[in-house]
Amino acid sequence: MIGAPRTLRLLGAVAAITVASVVVLTGCSDGDAAPHPSSSTHRPDTTPSTVSDTASDASDFFSILRKPIAARDALPADLTTTPDDMVPNSARFAVEHDGTAYWIAAVADGGACLIAWDGDPDSAANYSVCGGRQDIHRASVVTSMIDEQEHQTLLVSDGYTSVGADPLRELAPNVWVSAPGD
Q1: Which end of the chain is more exposed for a tag (fewer CB within 10 A), N or C?
Q2: What is the CA radius of gyration of the chain?
Q3: How confident is the model over 54-83, as pLDDT tens digits?
Q4: How far is Cα 20 from Cα 15, in angstroms, rounded to an integer?
Q5: CB neighbours of residue 23 within 10 Å
Q6: CA distance 115 to 94
Q7: Three-state SS for 13?
C-alpha cells in the first residue's frame, strides 16, 4: 500500500491530538456540581460583551481568515478530508502548487487547519492537518504534513520566517514547503 505510511502518520497525529485534548480537558471541573460565582458576575459599570466567534480566535493568527469569503474559497464537493470540527464557511483558498490546492480553515477550538486537495478524490495527497488553539503562537509552525517523497508542507501563523540550515520556502503567507535537497 503506497498510502499506508501517510495514513499511519495522519492517524498518529489524530491520536496525539485526541490524547492531548483529553489531558487538557481532564480536570476542568473541581467536582463540585454547584456553580461558583465570579467577581465579574454582576458588574454594574460595564456592558455585557458578546462571546467571540471561534473563527476569530484563529483569525488573530492567520490574516487570511479575516478576508471576506469568495467563490474560490469553496471546498470541492468531493473533498472528504475536511475536519469534523471545522467552522462552517471559514475555509479560505491559500494557494495552488504542483497541482495541489491548499485552504486554511478555522476549527471549533480556535485552532486552524491546512486542507490539501489535488483533484483526484482517491489521492493520498488529499489531507487536512490541524493545530488546536493551544498550538498556535505568533510567527511559528502550527502543524505540518510530510509526504512519501519527504516533502513537507507547513501551516504557519502570520509573521513566520524560516531560519536554519534548511530554510523553507513560502508558497503563500501561511503555507510553506520544504523538500529533500532544497
Answers
A1: N
A2: 19
A3: 566 899 999 999 999 999 999 999 888 999
A4: 8
A5: 9
A6: 10
A7: helix
